[in-house]
Design goal:
The structure is a homodimer. In chain A, the strands form 2 sheets. In chain A, strands 6-7-8-3-9-10 form a 6-stranded mixed beta sheet, sandwiched between helices. A 4-stranded antiparallel beta sheet of chain A has the order 2-1-4-5. By secondary structure, chain A is α/β, with parallel strands linked by helices. In chain A, α4 crosses α5. Helix content of chain A is about 35%, strand content about 30%. Chains A and B meet through α1, α5 and α6 of A and α1, α5 and α6 of B. The complex binds adenosine-5'-triphosphate (2 copies) and magnesium ion (2 copies). One adenosine-5'-triphosphate sits at the interface of chains B and A.
């Protein structure tokens, strides 16, 4: 479902070139569960933003569901980002003036659901991450782990078929982490595709395949189940 | 060096009262190394903000170095926050328009150092967290783990005697985490006081005492060395 050829993202700063993603060929099948690991600064978030259609590559091709992303219209891209893909950001990226509930509802507005449907799906997603008592809080009125869980709920609320999660458990205690990984497991068994960035080996073991990045390139790609 | 009696922080939302910190008596000696653990939302960050003099309690007393914080002048409080305490925030709290180097220099301006001294201390702190090649980047041009390391460097640059670190390794791979914990270890052996919030048992083991919070109260307090 995801196919990249020679994918590159280069930043130019002054006379320096930073090859955040330095030529990645990757093929991820429908229903796969991949963990993406690698040192700080190795290009994981940059790569995730490229495959989430949230950023454009400097070079290389990226096909999603067989279609070349660079040839898609704005409507098609918006559809991919909001309906097909659920993205959990490493730094959460919640809107500060909206409540947790409103933040989770946001992608559902693009999906064209009625207000009643949106409310019901958003409430359900917040319940899945154990945040029902906090749904009217704004991000500044939430703990770090609670904000992370709102970001997770927002990614899952629209039932996307591809889940891209960038370090979704970094601010969570182990009990809550395991709960979240359980939710993701269920989504995987329902046939969805999961790509998860993590630094923690205890989280990576939930995946079926682990890809290691270093300096913007794939260093290792192994099956673990 | 840190003493709290019946410390409370209550948030009122509508007709609901949230007891984020619900009566904490804690005594931390000079040179101690304490890990603070507990579930998401149990009050760890709120407690850290209170003892870091970044927030005022709803009730209770807090003594730092024998002095009652509620009787301190603004100057004395500013001195405590910028010179005595180094604080690593859970969500980094970097200024987006400043470079990594400028962000790290910020607390040193309060300390009244000359521009040359500030530059040298800031560069040294960034080198300790392995970020020299990135010191002219702004936060938006840094990876999650790099931003976390800037936040750490900023906390350490002014050689504070009390280090309050709220989940300082959440976004770091294990190699970098161990490096950072090594730096903190050295600071501890130099006689500084360390209080570290963490969810990870592998990080908590560096401490000599572990305090567990639950629902804003101390649930357990044990020596581990
Ligand atoms: N401004 C606020 N208004 C209302 N409630 C708040 C506010 N700030 C924090 N809270 C609540 O206080 C509780 C404690 O928050 P705190 O940030 O201290 O938790 P924590 O232990 O650091 O959690 P985490 O491990 O997720 O970072 C949470 O339930 C949170 O929702
Ligand atoms: N806008 C930018 N300008 C310049 N360099 C950038 C920019 N954004 C990212 N970088 C650099 O690209 C590299 C890869 O960043 P990326 O965020 O993908 O790393 P990462 O693997 O997610 O790291 P972490 O584990 O710390 O989150 C880093 O070295 C970073 O400094
Ligand atoms: Mg990242
Ligand atoms: Mg916290």
């Amino acid at each position: 479902v995801i196919q990249t050829y020679g994918l590159r993202k280069t930043y130019v700063m002054g006379d320096q070139e930073i090859h955040a993603v330095d030529g990645i060929d990757m093929s991820i099948k429908y229903g796969e569960y991949v963990a993406l690991m690698g040192p700080s600064g190795s290009g994981k978030s940059t790569f995730m933003n490229l495959i989430g259609a949230l950023d454009t590559p400097t070079a290389g091709d990226y096909f999603i569901a067989g279609q070349l992303i660079s040839t898609m219209s704005d409507d098609e891209l918006a559809h991919i980002r909001n309906k097909e893909i659920g993205f959990v950001f490493q730094t959460f990226n919640l809107l500060p003036r909206l409540t947790a509930l409103q933040n989770v509802e946001l992608p559902l507005i693009y999906a064209g659901l009625s207000p009643e449907q949106r409310l019901e799906k958003a409430r359900h997603a917040l319940q899945q991450v154990d945040l029902t008592p906090r749904m009217y809080h704004k991000p500044s009125e939430l703990s770090g782990g609670q904000r992370q869980r709102v970001a997770i709920a927002r990614a899952l609320a629209g039932d996307p078929s591809i889940i891209l999660a960038d370090e979704p458990t970094g601010n969570l205690d182990s009990a809550t982490s395991n709960e979240i990984m359980g939710v993701i497991d269920v989504l995987h068994r329902q046939g969805n595709t999961i790509i998860l960035v993590t630094h923690e080996p205890d989280i990576a073991v939930y995946a079926h395949r682990v890809v290691h990045l270093r300096d913007g390139k794939v260093e290792k790609d192994e099956s673990i189940k």
